[in-house]
Amino acid sequence: MAEATVIHGTRAAPRKPWYTVLYIQVLIAIALGVAVGHFYPQTGSALKPLGDAFINLIKMMIAPVIFCTVVHGISSMGDLKKIGRVGIKTLFYFEAVSTLALGIGLLMGEVLQPGAGFNIDPASLDPKAVASYVSRAAQEGVTNHLMNIIPNTFVGAFAGGDLLQVLLVSILTGFAISRMGKLGEQVAHAIDAMAKIFFGVIGIIVRAAPVGAFGAMAFTVGAFGVGSLWKLIELVLVFYATSILFIVVVLGTIARAAGFSIFRFIAYIKDELLIVVGTSSSETVLPQMIQKMQRLGASKSVVGLVIPTGYSFNLDGTNIYMTLATLFLAQATNTPLTLGQELGILAIAMITSKGASGVTGAGFVTLAATLAIVPDIPIQSLAILLGIDKFMSECRALTNLVGNGVATVVISRWEGELDAQKLHETMAHPMTIGEEMETKPA
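The structure corresponding to this sequence follows.
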């Protein structure tokens, strides 16, 4: 008989065999993917559709999940002043922490000088290699970005899958339902029931995460090769070290002030972190994060606003990457920058970073947009980073994910809507998304 664990007078579900636990399956899949990609690179490259299929399955569910979560969260608040208060607190928190991330990236780039000594001649680089990223960055100007938030049609927001468009439609719908009185309560209840259906579908899809992680990792190593890291290994190490420093020190301090441990929190979302490692995109775990934050004790209304908004406005990993990579390229091409120019880069990055999202490669496009405004650094120098961006995108996505999770708990606490007892009990005895959450009396 499987062993059961007694927790606070209740008997938890029997412990599952280790090989059925999702994060262990994902770890094994990642290791196998690296091995296949390294020893059989052609086979590894051919496995790309496995990773793409899993990502597309998750993306298929993101728009309806965000819609149901945000609409139900806003409509259940009732008090429109409260909605505005939570929104202002959320944006204030995002801006403050994002600025810290940009500043830390700039500081570490200046102190550690990862690009010094590369002595790369920009004229020797092929501008065609980054032409597509530059053109995309040009299209993502501030005005165009703001205009693109408005979908052509209500349904078009869901068809296109743009997170900000879905968020706009969801907020407007939530406001409308909150003003409908009794009928609005019935509609909100129906939308909450729809959300449970969508989360049920997510629970089925997420079981395929090991297959997706295996295919994505095999392709990455097979197509780019582990050896592609060595030439720019110092930048990769500095970026990972800076991101870890930011999570432990900055987010750790914020978490401690909010009454929880950043390390326990990371352990709680380990399944999602490993899926992100395999897919290099934090979007693949957005629905699971919404569920996990609610189970952690954060209120539905706050989770519904903070998590989706954070995927466009609270990208700490992307912010660190932008300022660090910009300084790296300046150092690598021997482009001198004054303190005023560096602060200017910080200010520009604060604006351009708001257009990024959790999609793989968005950080690279945002970096191109930043360099396009900074004429001193040759934009063709982006080609230096092409070979390693895939490896760095994983760290960006991981940092973004942890940052959004911490933000949700903190803002719930600010609103007085955080169940502190549930927070500590859940972190002490975490359960994965697919496990039975109910416990039976001892």
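The longest helix spans residues 80-112.
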